[in-house]
Structure prediction request, 302 residues.
Amino acid sequence: MTPSPYVSRINQIDAAQLDTEIYKVLRNQAREIARYGAPGKLDKWQAEVDAVLKLLIWKFSLQRGSSTFGQRLLNLHYANIDQRKAVLYLILSVLPQYLGEKLAGEKLSGRGATGSALKSLVEWTTNAISLLEVVNLLFFLHRGVQPRVIEFLLGLSSQSITTHRPRIIGYSYMTRELLWHGLMELFTVGIPMINFHCLRHAVTRLWRRAEPSSGLFPVMNAATKCAYCREDPILPSHAGCEHLFCYYCLRAHFTATSAFQCPVCDAELRGEDMKRYAVASAPRSDDGEEESDDSFEKVDDG
Prediction:
């Protein structure tokens, strides 16, 4: 098929976005591998790792052909690229970001006037590049070529490998995508706002008879569970009945309301009565050994 000189704007933007996503996937995989090493070791060399990843992407794409990975997925390529432009493409895509990340991690403020001037230069360069990207985007929307600043600086233009065909997106597909994204937004926003523990206790209370409160001071042992989440209490706390709660289980309730009922004994718990527990020093026996009793001391919250 004869290549078509015309390439739609959406295909060029998608190719650039695919290149970015491929780089992010490799970067995330590198971070996953580094999790099994010493903590924080990759952060020290993150700039170098990013540069190596971009070098590998360039080596297996533009050095061996005339298109990036994103362009290949959309049957595009650079019509006027050569080896010199490919090398300049690598330098412009790697060097500015590498220098920015390395200088951002250095403490330039302690180097006097030179450090301050270098920091100002880095900030000015970063702002200038961001402004240039915005201006280039406006020109791209008008001309329909060179969506990336690097392409504009090197004079690269995309071309379709196959005969141009209009990009047709069916209404059924668009409707399905809109419904799916709307449903995902509803779930991501709505589900975290639902208190499933509260709903579970409300339903359980319909057929379960509440245990009468004995009015005793709460006692914690190895079998004690949080009366709300039924897990081992984290920072054990109580608020007026004999049952213990996780600190955050109680605090979350009292942040939303000043009082609520204990899920076990239905005693009314109030925020001003909330107390935390700390293990008290075990009393010593006559022979100087500590006794192993489960005694606790009461500590005011805050």
